[in-house]
Amino acid sequence: MMGGYIFDSHAHYDDDKFDGERDRIIAEELSDVKYVMDVGWHGSVMLAEKYDKFYASVGVHPHEVGKITEDICPELESMLRHKKVLALGEIGLDFYYNFSDRETQMYWFERQMELAAELNVPVIIHDREAHGPCLEMVKKFPKLKGIFHSYSGSAEMAAELVKRGWYISFNGIVTFKNAVNLREVVKYVPLERLLIETDCPYLAPHPMRGKLNHSGYLKYTAEAIAELKNIEFEELCYVTCRNACEIYGVNL
Prior knowledge:
The protein has helices at 22-29, 42-50, 72-79, 102-119, 131-140, 155-163, 180-188, 218-229, 233-248; strands at residues 7-11, 35-40, 54-58, 85-94, 123-128, 146-148, 167-170, 194-196. It is built from nine helices and eight strands. Strand 3, helix 3 (72-79) and strand 4 form a beta-alpha-beta unit. The protein has a single domain, classed as Metal-dependent hydrolases (TIM Barrel, Alpha-Beta Barrel). It is an alpha/beta fold.
């Protein structure tokens, strides 16, 4: 149905919610999925080594930065030199939960952006209730490119990011009944900067909402976005797969 062109640009199959089901789901539910970017740490690298269609991104999430020291940097740099580790992330700011204090979040966000710039790798940004500070950080690193995943900002901010060469990724939230504003933002993001993701095991799209999310459900998100963009489903899948391949440096 999808011609094999679908790229889940942000997933977490290393999450313990998949324990006991991980291998079965990957084997049985991902047949139409060309590639998956698993975002996390050592578990993500192990999945990328095990499955041909998996790649990994590693970084310290803003929820976790209060637990780390400078010793993490050499380990992170070493992991980023692995042939299947293609990005640094997810990094950024989360002012909704504030599991780490804001000053610490800002420090490690910038520290990891610096490392990405040094190694010339793209970054995956987590931005929750911190749109302004995240955009300002991007402006500090004009040569750095990456993805704002699970996008929740404004159309104006998306336009600024696109102008700077960044990609905007949307997930199952766009199918939720109350996501009216987000669907309007989708309409304004140009196709050449658009990505789709699951953020699984979370945020399963309608009509699978509430279930354990996986990349096989990404078709529902793709269908919703294709309708919003007034294009065919297959075209949406191909274009977003091509875009993800471009930013991650993968052969289409």
